[in-house]
Amino acid sequence: MQYKIMLIEHNRLLLEQLSKVIENAPDMELEARFQSSSDALGQGRVFSPNIILLDAEIGNATELLQELIGVFPGAAVICTGEKWEAESTSHFIQAGASGYLIKPFTYNGLKEAIKIYTANGMEMDCHAMTFFSPKGKSGKTTLIANLAMAISRTTGEQVGIIDADLQFGDMAVFFNLEPQSTIVEAARDASFLSPLDLRSYYTKVNDKVYVLCGTKTPSLIDRVAIDSLEAVIKMSRSLFKYLLIDVPAGFNPTSIAAAEMSDTTYVVAMMNGGYEVKHVQRALEIFAGWEDCANRVKTVFTRVVPCNDQSRRKLTEAMGCPVEAVMPNAYMVVSKAADNGQMALDLEPDSPLAMSINYLAGRIIHPPAGGTGDD
Ligand SMILES: Nc1ncnc2c1ncn2[C@@H]1O[C@H](COP(=O)(O)OP(=O)(O)OP(=O)(O)O)[C@@H](O)[C@H]1O
Ligand SMILES: [Mg+2]
Questions:
Q1: How distant is the alpha carbon of residue 74 from its chain centre?
Q2: 121 CA distance to ligand 2 centroid (A)?
Q3: Cis omega (within 30 of 0) on the bond before 104?
Q4: Which residue has the least CA distance to atom 24 on ligand 1?
Q5: Element (H, E) at 4
Q6: Nearest ligand to the CA atom of 139
Q7: pLDDT attached to residue 297
């Protein structure tokens, strides 16, 4: 496709520099360029661009954006700025921009931005979820990986996974990925990245599911500062409709930060002798400090035998609060899937595990109005 671009840039030097990038591009045409926004809306009306790059650092950029959308209904407006900030970007997206691009940009950066923003737009209402476990070996990595696939298949939406289990993250192994970059590089670069740049730090599983893989060696944990992790999560929210975050077991700065930045936190525990109920209850007591804890924190038990609604209700009774979902004992299918480098969901799509995962995916996609139905 030939992109017909209108460039609006108040800085003369940048106007020259960005014009050259577009003029030298094989599949782009610089239809018009303006240093002044009033010219763009005045004499610019004779042009019919399909992409408008709007300098978002002009004083009245929001008004201008809305006027441009009215005058050029066939064009996608991408705002440009020298730094990415979640609040101002979200403001522009709400006002109708298709995306936000950091300048100066290269041909590849511009092309990627146009491709992604015109296809998916920038995500505005991401549902971010942290999967927390009081103790290790809860089945949460297995759950996240399969759940991400189930959600993407049902919705066709973009789903991201962040492996923030900084020391022992194994999401890459799970999906058989060989990441070029990991959360360490993403965190290092977070302060000067835009969401679009961050996307290239994710490793692709398929067209819909992307993973920001964990550190390659446990000692690299020190390289991921909490504020950088927060920046990565914040930015990732504008890339994906659903964001699933794997965190280290227990309460620690990483798991707390991720949970605080998420819309929902799932407390996950694997049945193994019965103490799990106590562990989860204790974890919930800590989360109870959140005002909206009842809506934001949900419980999932894995390896529940028998895995049915009656067991879920029994666990609800023992817990004294609703249990969102139960996963069956699926050791065989989970380990067979791991050996084959496949998802359990794909290996046995009709298995009880697949059914439980699809059930939970369904509740994430269409949250029931009246809670769990237990009360
Ligand atoms: N539903 C299940 N039934 C039985 N075994 C399971 C189930 N889910 C996962 N497992 C097995 O339990 C072990 C731990 O699973 P997983 O790695 O998903 O848990 P985790 O909570 O992420 O563990 P870690 O604390 O090591 O990160 C794995 O050997 C996995 O094969
Ligand atoms: Mg894990």
A1: 28
A2: 32
A3: yes
A4: 137
A5: strand 3-8
A6: 1
A7: 97
Give ligand 1 pocket residues (Cβ under 6 A): 133, 136-142, 165, 249, 302-303, 327, 329-331, 334-335, 353
What is the per-residue pLDDT across 178-220, written as a single tens digit (0 to 9) for each?
Answer: 999 999 999 988 877 778 789 889 999 999 999 999 987 777 6
Residue 220: the pLDDT is 67
Distances (CA, A) of 198 to 149, 176, 183, 209, 216: 21, 21, 10, 15, 18
pLDDT at 89: 84
Q: Distance of alpha carbon 302 from its chain centroid, rounded?
A: 24
Are 104 and 14 a contacting pair, CB within 8 Å? yes
CA nearest ligand 1 atom 12, residue = 139
pLDDT, residue 194, reads 79
Rounded-to-integer distance, Cα 144 and Cα 141, Å: 5
Which stretches of the chain score pLDDT less than 50? 375
Ligand 2 centroid from CA 136, angstroms: 7
Quote the pLDDT of residue 273. 84
Q: What are the CA-CA distances from residue 348 to residues 171, 342, 357 (Å)?
A: 20, 10, 12
β-strand pairing of 51-55 with 3-8: parallel
User: For residue 324, which phi and psi values (nearest 5 degrees)?
Assistant: -70, -45
Instruction: List the domains of the chain with CATH numbers.
Output: 3-120 (3.40.50.2300), 127-365 (3.40.50.300)
User: Which pLDDT belongs to residue 373?
Assistant: 52
Q: Are 89 and 238 in contact (CB under 8 A)?
A: yes
List Cβ<8 Å contacts ≥24 apart for 113-118: 113/78, 113/196, 114/3, 114/51, 114/76, 114/78, 116/196, 116/199, 117/76, 117/78, 118/51, 118/76
Q: Which atom of ligand 1 is nearest to the CA of 249?
A: 25
Rounded to a whole number, what is the distance in angstroms from the first to the last CA of the chain?
55
CA of 165 to the centre of ligand 2 (A): 7
